[in-house]
Amino acid sequence: MFARRTRSPLIVGLLFLITLLIGLLLGGHPSWLPGPVRSVFVAKNGSDQIEDDVLGLLQRDYYRKVNRSQLVNTGLAAAVASLHDPYSHYYDPSLYRSFQDETSPHLSGVGIDVKVVTRGLFVVDVFAGSPAAKAGIVPNDVITAVGATSLSKRSSDFSSGLIKGRAGTKVTLTILSGTRTRTVSIVRANINVPVAAGRIVTYHGTKLGYVELSSFTTGSGAEVRAQVEKVLHQGARGLILDLRENGGGLLEEAVNTASIFIPDGTIVSTDGRSQPRQVYMARGDAISTKIPLVVLVDSGTASSSEIVTGALKDRGRAKVVGTHTYGKGVFQEIDPLPNGGALDFTVGEYFTPNGENLGGGGVRRGPGIKPDVYAYTNPRSHTDTALTVAERTVAAELP
Questions:
Q1: Rounded CA gap, 310 and 316, in Å?
Q2: What average pLDDT does the segment 127-147 reach?
């Protein structure tokens, strides 16, 4: 049996210093060192030291009490704003949590889509199978109170914040349906927010499939595929993909969505200063290219939506109906930070299969994608003129 020797304190100290030196020489940053040791390696007049000094002086000697974290958050936001890039943002921890809630397809709540009105929250949509649907809440209802708290003239964040909550907990809502008021108690649940919806529309007796996609969140490509397969199973002979007011989202989901219709070849390519050029190819398992397709777009069609539209147009897979798209030729990366916040910043440009950058260069808004057939729906109109044009266009492509 062997016994382990105990090293002397002197030897341990020497080994510690040697390890520190090796770590620094290999590229380690001195910020992780203890204060007394760090001062040996960091110059007093370095930019990091200046920032620490300024924050320290403000926190210690400013005539009113200041919050150091708040100063840091404000400074970081200002630094990113100085880039004059409308697509780059610094999110403090609170804003980042809100951002994650908005972009995640999984939420805890009752399963409704709402907008603010004077009396409270107007119910725009109710998700199928949600607690709200089971409680009998329907579109056009107005939620006037949560518990004993009135929602009259309240902000969307305030009102929605009261309704959201941990799955399994109860919330009491006062509902105005026409002239009738009632109170319902609902148990919150984990909600999978649908971003794609499909239905059959008929144009002069011909069945067409209409699929609408609101954003490119995790799993949205699979949702679109499911809706496409549903309408085809219901007898659709042509398809309309509606990307109006779709501001984009995840690049991967754009590739997944385009791959539903394009069997092979290039979907999009990207290039950045710190990232090598990358070409994204179709993933396979596309539907038949003999099925006519129209993409419906407008000025709110941006980013990932333009990637899909550009790929379908350049590859000759679809006709584009609507107005010019937004014109965003850059993409962002979100890097979470140790303080719970995140940096959402532009890291590169993307190019359609024909090599076109839709942003006109850099972060400037560009010309976007020009439609093959111009169509516009007046927001005040009760008729969706652009959809009618899309139906006519895809029906004309049928054999």
A1: 10
A2: 93
Collapse the DSSP code of 113 into the 3-class scheme (helix H, G, I; strand E, B; otherwise coil) and give the result: strand
Sequence-distant contacts of 159-165: CB under 8 A, at least 24 apart = 159/114, 159/116, 159/120, 159/121, 160/114, 160/121, 163/109, 163/110, 163/112, 163/121, 164/101, 164/107, 164/108, 164/109, 164/188, 165/108, 165/109
CA distances 136 to 8, 91, 111, 122, Å, are: 75, 37, 12, 15
Regarding predicted confidence, which is higher, 79 or 99? 79
In the structure encoding, which two tokens stand for residue 192, read together?
């999978």
Contacts 24+ apart (CB under 8 A), 115-118: 115/156, 116/154, 116/155, 116/156, 116/159, 117/142, 118/152, 118/153
Average pLDDT in the 85-94 region?
90
Element (H, E) at 185: strand 180-187
Largest pairwise CA distance in the chain: 92
Q: Which long-range contacts (CB under 8 A, 24 or more apart) does 74-78 make?
A: 76/341
**68 in helix, strand or coil?**
helix
Q: How far, in Å, CA of 166 to CA of 82, rounded?
A: 38
Which helix (H) or strand (E) covers residue 267, if one does? strand 266-271
Q: Mean pLDDT throughout 180-186?
A: 95
Please provide the distance, in angstroms rounded to a whole number, between the alpha carbons at the two ends of the chain.
87
Position 19 pLDDT exceeds 80: no
Q: How confident is the model at residue 27 (pLDDT cuts 50, 70, 90)?
A: very low
For residue 79, the one-letter residue type is A
How many residues in the chain?
Answer: 399
DSSP output for 123-142: EEEE-TTSHHHHTT--TT-E
- Residue 243 token pair: 């990307």
281's CB contacts (< 8 A; 6+ apart) are 264, 265, 266, 267
What mean pLDDT comes out for the span 44-64? 81
Nearest residue to 217 (alpha-carbon basis) of 180, 257, 258, 244: 257
H helical segments located in 220-301:
220-233, 251-258
Residue 339 pLDDT exceeds 70 = yes
For the purposes of burial, counting CB atoms within 10 Å of the CB of 121, is it exposed (0-12), middle (13-18) or buried (19 or more)? buried
Whole-angstrom distance, CA of residue 388 vs CA of residue 328: 27
